[in-house]
Amino acid sequence: MLHLSYNQMPQAQIFRLFYFPTGNDVDENQVTEAADAIYEQQDHAFKLNLSFGVILRNRETGEYRYFRPFYNDTVLNRPLYISKRRDLRTLTLRLRRMDIFSLLLLHRPDTKWVPVLVTNFRFTIFHTFYPIGDLHGPLPDYVKMNKALIGVESCEKSGKTYNDHNCAFRCLALHKGFDVRTLNGETKRLFHTWVKFKGDIRDFSGVEYSDLPDFESCFEINVEVYALNQEGHTSSIYKSRGRYEKTMYVHLFKGHFSYIKDFGLFAKKYQCKFCDKLWDHKGNYIKHELKCQDKTKFVFPGGFYKPTKTLFEDLSYFGVKCVDQVYPWFIVYDFEALLHQVQGQRSDKVEWTHEHVPISVSVCSNVPGYQEPHCIINPDSETLVKDMVDYMRTISQKVEEMAKQRWGLALNQIEQMIYDLGEGEEEEEEDSEKKKLKSLYGRLKAYIRQVPVLGFNSAKYDLNLIKTKLAKHLGLHEEEYCFTIKKNNAYACISTEQLKFLDVTHFLAPGTSYAKFLKAYQVKESKGYFPYEWFNDVNKLEVTELPPPSAFYSSLKNSCISDEDYEHCQTAWTDHNMTTFKDFLVWYNNLDVRPFVTAVTRLQTFYFERNIDVFKIAMSVPGIARKMLFDTARREGAEFTLFDKNNKDLFYTIKSNIVGGPSIIYHRKAVKGETKIRGGKLCQKILGYDCNALYLWCIGQEMPVGTMVRRKAEEGFKPEVRDKNIKMFQWMNFVNKYQGKDIKHARNDGQEKRVGPYPVDGYDELTNTIYQFHGCYFHGHRCRLTDRVSDETWHENRNKKFVKTKKTTAYLKGKGYKVIEMWECDFEEFCKEHPEIHALGWELRPNFYRRHRGKVSEKQILSGVRDETLFGMVEVDIKVPEKWEGDFKHELSPWDYFKEMSPLFCNTEVKFEDIGEHMQAHIKNERLATHPRRLLVGGMKAEKILLATPLLKWYLEHGLKVTRIYQVVEFNAHACFKQFVNDVTEARRAGDARPEMGIIGDTMKLIGNSGYGSLIMDKTKHRDIIYVRGERETCLAINQDEFRNATCLGDDFYELEMAKHKTIMDLPIQLVYFILQYGKMKMLEFNYDFLDVYVDRSDYMLLEMDTDSNYLCISGENLREVVKPEMLQMYDHFLKDYCRENACAAFLPRECCDMHKKYDRRVPGLFKTEYEGDKMIGLCSKTYVVANGDECKFSSKGITKMNVNNVWETYDNVLRNQKAGSAMNRGIRARDNTMFTYTQQRNGFSYFYCKRKVLVDGISTTPLDITLKP
């Protein structure tokens, strides 16, 4: 029996204490039972924490003492919010992960005292309610004077102020039409209705905010709550879910409702409560506030990027060494579905034909005892999913047992470290160390317990198929340590304590089929075929023979089963002694998962050999590529600046200038023997060139590293320098270089060494020496540098800081390390004796800043760009000049020289007035939208565009003119990812040479291609996915500031998308920006520094470019045939005379010999022939066809290629008739929380094109006459 005891507080109390007697057998069940007893006595939501009372014995003296359960010795790091009984489950789960006896060890005075008897535990609860209905003073004048409001703060008859907390009911009475002078009777009736609805209400103090969903249900009315400020601007406080016909609008001020009788008159403006932006119209305001990015607080930490360490790297940091550092176990699964035909679900262009209903799932794993496929069949989806989850949890428990055997020693080590910690350290440092070790202990336990669960294309199909049931059976609304990562309708990850659902296709190249996946990892595919569309009724499970061949017809593929394949199915039916179609379903479902396990095992082997714990450290290949990239950079000693809050504007400037690969049509049609090149020679050949591994080449170029220096025009380009800790690194780098030491520190090793609770500045492992640099101000040193400090607080704390520094040094020495210290004041004298140290300091600063420590002119900046002493970014106005002004000259005018491939690229607004008369007429004829479009286009001039200095140098060298500079951002230049590029390239060559290395080559190709994608992650778009159950909880969650979107999963389950409360901008955004800038420079070089140099313009014409490819027509049969006669010798020289090792081809692969042809085939940045044809049509971006006789290569964005018939004619008809073409798409898509098969008539072949001006012939184009503005 539990005896509840607590000290009585005044009514205004903010917390209460509850004590419960117990003994050494206390467990989570007893504690939870006590919490439940407390819950029964509360009328409002509260926050809760827990502490223990214990009798301790001193193991040296034998003395006993009672250790009271004080609040600062609580079990939970932060109080747990309890609003409903099932919230107590979170407390149970947390306690279950903890060893209560170990917790007691953490809170004892020091290690001399050991617990002998647990006497009691104490709950502290904090009340969080603020009831509506209690005004706490008169309404302000701006509320009283608002003609749209009725204040209901006092009785109209008596004039007395109401103090009964019934303002919500008075507003409702007014809304029902009662007069303000006769409200009391109706108010009482409504109050009694509320009491009856809610049950016994003791000490009623008003309708709480959390009661509003129940208030709506009770009175069947929508309630919208707003707040008004003195300027007349309105903000939304509570949004109804709109379930009822009528809506009541109320105003909230300090817990008091006033009735809004005329909402149109109520507010002058609507104000977003996140960004303070004002709106005239309510509808626009509501749309904006739902999407407002200021819901999230973006934190700009400054400093340098710190790669996320793996669990085992953190364990090693604390001295816990693990031999096994990869998690080998996993589960795979695959669902099959009934395809129910649906009727009447058709719009003008889309028809939904079949609803997919889960019918079976096969589960397999590499876990001993569970290595055979296990198929579950059940037409009841609820039971099917429950049984699957239960079976997976059974496997997970087996894995946990094996994992504990593998890493149990590490757990014991951490427990011992926590137990031993405390002697000799200061309390503050000790607490910090305990928290980190406790966190590490929890991470290792979670790592041990959670097993990856893998599907194939499951992010888009399987998880959507079962998501209405899966959330409930995984307990996503109850589990504390769960998260979901979702993009659009695809689930990248669903993570719980035991299971982590991932999609293997996220670790493969885009578009990889299951058959290609098995083939890539040399796994023999088990052939199987299934009559999907025939299987539309659960009763067919009992059919006693194999369905006929016609049942295997697929409308998606528009094909039927072959005789040979049908015979294979018949053989399987016989060989496996099948008696019903249910047996066939089991056989077919199991076929997918057995080879799946083998293929995944081999995929793991590739990564495990490189010590990459593939399914634990990432959810996709880009995550792995990011780790490999930054590991390479760390070995190179590179570091990357992160922007602080003073430079967050620069972050957004870079973000707005991140521009992807251009996709532009230059000439819309070219046909051999018909098209005239620039009105002259006839086209004889279409050539398509592709830049091999363009972004991999970009990654290998010089990147912005080290300290950032910023210069702004308004300050005369005076440098703003971040020199934090520069003296410390100067000193240690000097010792390394001139005294032969090998000191590792944060800037050359990527991390600091840690000794116990103390991070140290530098460490030389060979001599076991720690190097500490002490800033005199921060370490309380009394010297000439601090003599003039006037800050009284500093003087009060100076001695404490100094003593702490000395104690730290003593601790380090006590651990057996030699410690060398350098005080800041002594360092200045040291520099005088060793002047060469200054050069090492300058090496950490950008080159241009070393030469120009003061203000500079625009001329000096541009000179620095030209001679490459300035490396970084420059924000400029730039244009193609009217005439050549610098060293660069050409027989054509600047405009004519650049008009085909406009050199500047930017995402900018293209207006109706900009696109030329031809497309304007097309828009009017077809009644298309005339609104501006934001597009990635090429142009001849730009304002306030941020350019990387290598690209800006190219522009200057080719005659473009900078008319204004706004700011300069300087970095050091370092090709820090070069080894990553080399590793990928050499692996691909090895795969070419040796078939057994093919897997490695293909996987490294994927990682190389993902390198760029790993850096482009936009954290401003990240969201949290949470799950709630019940209308009331959902309504409250929807009214949280972070709410974005809601999806009902059925059975009162809801999936909510929430803005993150806080996001730390801790990725170096400048890297992806530089990669994209290099990509554009490479494509410009190919056109202007290769084609235009070697081929006369009368012999070639650009047709299309798309990121890394370029299509052109030429007047000869091959490129060599049209090379200028005077350039032919040099052209052949580069292709054939560089037949030696380590020679670097410029643009095209060498043709000197087979060996170098094969070598250059894998060189990033070289252009290879992608296609040769005799005609081409380009309608618009990513919609083109090139043909060679009857063979076609085409791109049709948004249309499935297999559904396009008569390809060339389709494109040609669009161009000739100036009418959009269409095709029938067939596929499977998520809809209404499940999957459907659909057919769609899609107008994917558009005549409209506005990235350039299309001339009257509908084929030729010229640049848009606009100024690009990011």
Written overview of the protein:
The chain is of the alpha+beta class and 1270 residues long. The strands form twelve sheets. Strands 15, 16, 17, 18, 19, 20, 21, 48 and 49 form a nine-stranded mixed beta sheet that branches.
Number of strands: 51
Span of the ends, CA to CA? 70 Å
Radius of gyration: 36 Å
Q: What coarse outline follows from CA principal-axis ratios?
A: globular
Which sheet architecture does the biggest sheet show? 9 strands, mixed
Give the count of structural domains.
Answer: 7
Number of helices: 37
Structural class: alpha+beta
Low-confidence stretches: 1-14, 423-429
Mean pLDDT: 87
Q: Give the fraction of residues assigned to helices.
A: 25-40%
Question: Which percent band covers the strand fraction?
Answer: 15-25%
EC number: 2.7.7.7
Catalytic activity: DNA(n) + a 2'-deoxyribonucleoside 5'-triphosphate = DNA(n+1) + diphosphate
Family: Belongs to the DNA polymerase type-B family.
Domain DNA-directed DNA polymerase family B mitochondria/virus: 450-716
Task: Identify the notable features of this structure and list them briefly.
Cathepsin B, Chain A, DNA-directed DNA polymerase, 7-stranded mixed β-sheet, globular, alpha+beta, nucleotidyltransferase
